């Protein structure tokens, strides 16, 4: 079904196809772009294989590939500053609810009910997971910003000679936040990933994070978007329509993946009860539970733009129309 949207057979792909390098994590819902199931008649995609954090950092520092996975926080920040030399596609390969991003020491007495006068470590103010987590604190849990001291650092190790400027802190290096948490120098760590420490020494601040995530979705209809796909502006200017073609191709790849998940006879993932979970997702989010496009994500995107402005990530409130112009 989905292949017919933008695909052509291998033999029909033009030898004059525009070669474009694309850096994206190894997601199931993008695999069809690279294994021949989805092809574009006039574009040849060549995948750059790197860990996703490296993809984002390298692209922001001038890596030459044309298409990249990108942090939503970084994209909004650069759009507000007028320094963005790439455009976003309304394609969102990575989403995650963030109640599970809060970590405390295993012997901590912190819970929902006593979140006051906190010292919280974060990997950066414009990290998308941090933006959503801070919004949970202020909007859902009623924690006042003035009652939080923020410490910016690296999650797992100290980084020398990097200015810690997110909150005007004069530190000469970014500290290792996991060490600070274990040593009692911070109360909470917000991390997009599980910290690299002995799992018996830390715990989730919210052990019931899955239920809280579901309640959050039911209450707000926000399905947090972590990453979008971006295309260099010069590529779109030189080849008008490329952004639109890419968006269609990514959508086709996603549809192929979701079709497989909905069909138990094609299930290739070795997880018990996965089909039951897929049925639950269909009931909860609808058949398209990884929605692409602006309109289907308007609530989430506008909320995120509000959060960015409230937290000082964007110096002005960016309008949604500025993010997806092609």
What does this structure look like?
This protein has helices at residues 3-6, 52-60, 72-81, 128-140, 177-182, 209-220, 233-238, 242-262, 274-285, 298-310, 320-323, and strands at residues 18-23, 43-48, 67-71, 86-95, 102-105, 118-122, 148-152, 188-190, 202-204, 225-232. It is of the alpha/beta class and 326 residues long. Strands 2-1-3-10-4 form a five-stranded mixed β-sheet. Strands 7-6-8-5-9 form a five-stranded mixed β-sheet. Strand 6, helix 4 (128-140) and strand 7 form a beta-alpha-beta unit. The longest helix has 21 residues, at 242-262. It is globular, with a radius of gyration of 21 Å.
State the main characteristics:
alpha/beta; D-Maltodextrin-Binding Protein, domain 2; 2 domains; 5-stranded mixed β-sheet; 11 helices; 34% helix; 17% strand; globular; disordered N terminus
- Unreliable stretches (pLDDT < 50, length at least 5) are 1-14, 160-164
CATH topology of the largest domain: D-Maltodextrin-Binding Protein, domain 2
Largest sheet: 5 strands, mixed
- Based on Cα principal axes, name the global outline: globular
The radius of gyration computed from the alpha-carbon positions, rounded to a whole number of angstroms, is: 21 Å
Total domain count: 2
Strand arrangement within the widest β-sheet reads 2-1-3-10-4
CATH class of the largest domain, please? Alpha Beta
Strand content: 15-25%
Query: How many E-type strands?
Result: 10
Secondary-structure class: alpha/beta
Give a quick precis of the structure.
Helices cover 34% and strands 17% of the residues. It has 326 residues and is of the alpha/beta class.
């Amino acid at each position: 079904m989905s292949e017919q949207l933008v695909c052509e057979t291998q033999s029909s792909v033009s030898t004059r196809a525009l070669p474009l390098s694309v850096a994206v994590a190894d997601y199931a819902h993008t695999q069809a772009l690279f294994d021949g199931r989805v092809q574009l008649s006039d574009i040849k995609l060549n995948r750059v294989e790197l860990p996703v954090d490296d993809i984002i950092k390298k692209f922001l520092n001038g890596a030459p590939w044309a298409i990249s996975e990108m942090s939503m926080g970084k994209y909004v920040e650069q759009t507000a500053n007028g320094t963005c030399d790439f455009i976003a596609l309304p394609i969102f390969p990575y989403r995650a609810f963030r109640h599970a991003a809060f970590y405390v020491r295993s012997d901590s007495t912190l819970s929902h009910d006593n979140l006051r006068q906190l010292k919280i470590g974060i990997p950066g103010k414009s990290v998308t997971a941090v933006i959503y987590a801070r919004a949970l604190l202020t909007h859902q849990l009623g924690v006042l910003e003035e009652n939080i001291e923020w410490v910016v650092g690296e999650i797992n190790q100290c980084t020398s000679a990097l200015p810690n400027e997110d909150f005007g802190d004069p530190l000469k290096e970014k500290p290792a936040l996991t060490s600070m948490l274990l040593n009692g120098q911070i109360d909470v760590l917000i991390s997009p990933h599980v910290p690299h420490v002995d799992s018996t020494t830390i715990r989730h601040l919210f052990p019931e994070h899955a239920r809280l995530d579901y309640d959050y979705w039911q209450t707000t209809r926000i399905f947090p978007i972590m990453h979008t796909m971006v295309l260099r502006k010069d590529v779109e200017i030189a080849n008008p329509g490329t952004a639109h073609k890419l968006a269609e191709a990514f959508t086709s790849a996603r549809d192929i993946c979701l079709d497989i998940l909905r069909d138990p006879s094609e299930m290739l993932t070795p997880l018990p009860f996965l089909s039951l979970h897929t049925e639950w997702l269909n009931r909860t989010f609808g058949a398209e539970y990884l929605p692409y496009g602006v309109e289907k994500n308007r609530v989430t995107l506008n909320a995120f733009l509000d959060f960015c402005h409230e937290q000082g990530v964007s110096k002005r409130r960016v309008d949604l129309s500025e993010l997806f112009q092609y």
